[in-house]
Design goal:
There is one protein chain. The chain has 452 residues and is an alpha/beta fold. The chain is 42% helix and 16% strand. The chain has a six-stranded mixed beta sheet with strand order 3-4-14-9-10-13, sandwiched between helices. Strands 7-6-5-8 form a four-stranded parallel beta sheet, sandwiched between helices. The protein has a two-stranded antiparallel ribbon with strand order 1-2. Helix 4 runs antiparallel to helix 6, helix 5 crosses helix 17 and helix 17 crosses helix 18. The longest helix is centred in the C-terminal third of the chain and has 20 residues. 56% of the residues are buried. Bound molecules: pyridoxal-5'-phosphate (PLP). The site of pyridoxal-5'-phosphate has 20 residues, from helix 7, helix 14 and helix 18.
Length: 452
Amino acid sequence: MTSQIKYLLDETHLPKAWYNLAADLPVPLPPVLHPGTKLPIGPADLEPLFPMALIEQEVSTVREIEIPEPVRAVYRQWRPSPLFRARRLEQLLDTPARIYYKYEGVSPSGSHKPNTAVPQAFYNREAGIRKLTTETGAGQWGSSLAFAGSLFGIEVQVFMVRVSYDQKPYRRALMETYGARCIASPSPETHAGRTILASQPNHPGSLGIAISEAVEVAAQRADTKYALGSVLNHVLLHQTVVGQEALAQLELADDYPDILVGCTGGGSNFAGLAFPFLGVQLRGGRKVRVIAVEPAACPSLTRGKYAYDFGDTGHLTPLVKMHTLGSTFTPPGFHAGGLRYHGMAPLVSHLAELGLIEARAYHQLRCFEAGVQFARAEGILPAPEANHAVRGAIDEALRCKEEGVSRAILVNLCGHGHFDMQAYMDYFAGKLRDLSYEESELAMALAGLPSV
Ligand SMILES: *Cc1c(COP(=O)(O)O)cnc(C)c1O
């Protein structure tokens, strides 16, 4: 194992290549389909939205894809990100478990998202693109792309889900600081947005709607492309720097995880941590238990259907096979805005179908309880999304205590919560509730799945 990992890192301990799980999958991923013909799409079908370098990564089955030096030069500002052992949390829980966390909150925008925003901006600039459009939930992705755009001289336009736009004004201010333009979605600026506003003027928005708006704008101009912060294969690929560094860092600590935990919105931070370890397992190395934790109010992996669906509400995207709650599903406005997406990454969905990962869902109050416990022990205040992963790790550590066994648990602490203090204030004031979606709304959204 040792040599397998070390040659992947350069002298600054930064990975030289991204790790592509597609190379080691026992069963290939189902193809992406054209929504009209229902036939597999080709690279040309994606060209209006993405530069060819990213499309090639999207469909690649090559195991290692070199990280361009200009991207690594930016990564070096905060990578390798630290891996900590949570000794004080272990003591507090009185558990024999060894809890480790990989901390992605050290990036300029405070989460794992710049790991993909930077290469996406880079490849678009190389392709001569002048402007990128995107959606954002909690604002983590929007601010990450805004940051990356400012580095590579690309204009960024962000459609921000209305409920988060109102809940998180400071994220919007950060995007504007980096020079991006931020618009509440649904907006009157696009056909997709106007259609929704006509029937529901106070619509809280959803990632699915914001994606439709961003895609619509990008598809209209040759110098404008679209960037997605999760779900797609190339996004998950870029995040694998997280797991590769963790492999090497744990080797320094002379340990190896028995259990990996990550929260899942679209699946990218979870994949970034887990895929390099799953790769070791799939190539005949050590096995790991991998746990995806999702919000009970938007439970695509645990309650969704594994089916072909659109990535957006306005049905402008190709069809991908994934765990989905239906593209018209609007989750309630809980505080982990980054986890409010109707679908799960096709690669993560595929792994769940193959039985290579597990999934569970938690309500938000128990997650905030875990996040506060973590902050009081370790000092780092997790993002509301990350609280789901922390809850999962604490539950596993408590199980170790019950069973009297010491296991190593590695959790992806995917971001800090410094822009999410309103959520914490609401939690301390007893104003936060566990929200549930309407079963009838889920049934209706699932009934609308395209027939393939
Ligand atoms: C965006 C975000 C998520 C959810 O997205 P994934 O693609 O599932 O990682 C989770 N945590 C944080 C901090 C985020 O910014």
